[in-house]
Amino acid sequence: MKIQESAENYLETILVLHKRKGVVRSIDIANEMNFSKPSVSVAMKNLRLGGYIKVDDDGSIMLLDKGREIAEKIYERHTLLSEWLTTMGVDPEIAAEDACRIEHVISNETFDALKRHVKTMSAALSKSGIQD
Question: How many CB atoms neighbour CB 108 within 10 A?
Fold first, then answer.
C-alpha cells in the first residue's frame, strides 16, 4: 500500500529517534522535524488510525509491523543514497537533502539495482585495497 511522502517521513523519523533515544514522544518528533506540536499530533492520529503506530497511555510512540516495514525501507534508501552521493563528492548536507527527496520517488527496481551496484563497487574497491 502506498502512503504519502509526509507519512513516510514521520515513520522514518520515529525509527531514527527510537534508535537514538529508545522512547519516542510527539514532542521529540516535532523537535526533530522542526514541525509544530499540533501538526505532529494530527499526523500521529492519522498514523495510529491507519495501523502504522501505537501510542501508549504515557505518550510513547511505537511502530507497528506495517509502520516499521515502511520506516526501515525509507531509512535504508536514505542511508544508501546519502552515502553514495557523498562518496561521489556531494557535500554531506546536500547529499542528505537530495536523498530525502529521492528516497520517496525511486522505484523498487531502480533502488535494488543501485544497491547491487554500490555493493559491487564497494567490494571491488575493498578487494583492490583502495577502500577499507
Answer: 9
